[in-house]
Amino acid sequence: MSTEANIAVVVLAAGGSTRLGRPKQLVEFKGKTLLEHTMDEVGMLGFQNKILVLGSRHEEILGRIDTSEFKVVINGDWEQGMASSIKIGLETALAEERELDHVLFLVSDQPFLERKNLIKLVHTQLTKRPKATYSQYGDSIGVPAIFGKAAFPLLLQLEGDEGAKILLQLDDFNFCTETFKKGGFDVDTEEDVQQLKQMEV
Question: What are the transmembrane regions (predicted)?
Fold first, then answer.
């Protein structure tokens, strides 16, 4: 897949997991942490430009997880919100490859992410050429999502806790979606963790 277009992958994993009280990146499901699962699904697709954005408790996370296949960047402003991680991830990807065509953003707490979800997103983005292709789960639209270079300036203008979903409100922002049936399940609370444990069997 990496030969089809110049695509960077950015895994956003800098958040503080305040509602959970411990790093959600290190919650285990089916024998591996949620962050490892995300990184493994990405790793199967052969992308060369892979960025991991860490922030809160990054030393603890780095002590537990092999990140050698990713370029790790620490977001010292992670408390300012998601926008800071999106921007530092994109800026790092562009520094690695100035002629970047697309960037694919993921988060680290979607336990049911599969590489087929990513393949569908990339295929739609490359064939239909919108500014972005988002995942859709139920009535929600979100990550993983892939953005073409026309969207890069818009991503770099995000502020605070704005995610890239806010770009959908722009009048001239054309986008596509691909279904990710279980994408709406993420891990924010201890109740979510317990529910996830019950799904291991």
Answer: none
Which helix (H) or strand (E) segment holds residue 127: the answer is: helix 115-128
Q: Please give the C-alpha separations between residue 45 and each of 40, 55, 115, 172, 196, in angstroms, as whole numbers.
A: 9, 25, 7, 31, 26
Read off φ and ψ for residue 17, nearest 5 degrees: 50, 45
Query: What interhelical angle do 115-128 and 34-43 show, nearest 10?
Result: 50
Topology of domain 7-198, CATH: Spore Coat Polysaccharide Biosynthesis Protein SpsA; Chain A (3.90.550)
Whose structure tokens read 């926008």? Answer: 83
Q: CA torsion, points 171, 176, 180, 186, in degrees to nearest 10?
A: -30
Written as six digits, the tokens of 158 are: 């995000």
3-state secondary structure 165-191: HHHHHCCCCCEEEEECCCCCCCCCCHH
Is the per-residue pLDDT at 3 higher than 50?
A: no
Is residue 4 predicted with pLDDT exceeding 70?
no
The pLDDT, as a whole number, for residue 23 is 87
Give the distance, in angstroms, between the CA of residue 186 and the centroid of all CA atoms in the same chain.
Answer: 12
